[in-house]
Specification:
The chain is mainly alpha-helical and about 100 residues long. The chain folds into two domains: about 60 residues, Helix Hairpins; about 30 residues, Ribosomal Protein S14/S29 (30s Ribosomal Protein S14, Chain N). It has three helices and two strands; from the N terminus they run ααββα. Strands 1-2 form a two-stranded antiparallel ribbon. α1 runs antiparallel to α2.
Length: about 100
């Protein structure tokens, strides 16, 4: 089980990124626009820098929803390999059969 603080920090990042998504994308579009004036592009870059860092989607870490483990994450099931193996062995994941020979 991951530290509670790491899981909570990641959740805060998810909320912040959702909150600033439209503003961040609008400012990025202005900053990248080659047809805009240099002053507008520079002002957009400064406003973008003022936004909180944790509001960026790249700061979000994929974590297992069962254990909070950050490594070996399967996006389709939103779980780590260890959680998938345990729940698959118990027959709790539909369509998953753990092989053994």
């Amino acid at each position: 089980m991951a530290k509670k603080s790491s899981i909570e920090k990641n959740e805060r990042r998810r909320k912040l990124s959702k909150k600033f998504l439209s503003r961040r994308s609008r400012l990025k579009a202005i900053a990248r626009d080659k047809n805009a004036t240099m002053e507008d592009r520079f002002a957009a870059a400064l406003k973008l820098a003022e936004l909180p860092r944790n509001g960026s989607q790249t700061r979000i870490r994929n974590r297992c929803e069962v254990t909070g483990r950050p490594r070996a994450f399967y996006r389709k099931l939103k779980m780590s390999r260890i959680a998938i193996r345990e729940l698959g062995s118990k027959g709790m994941i539909p369509g998953l059969v753990k092989s053994s020979w």
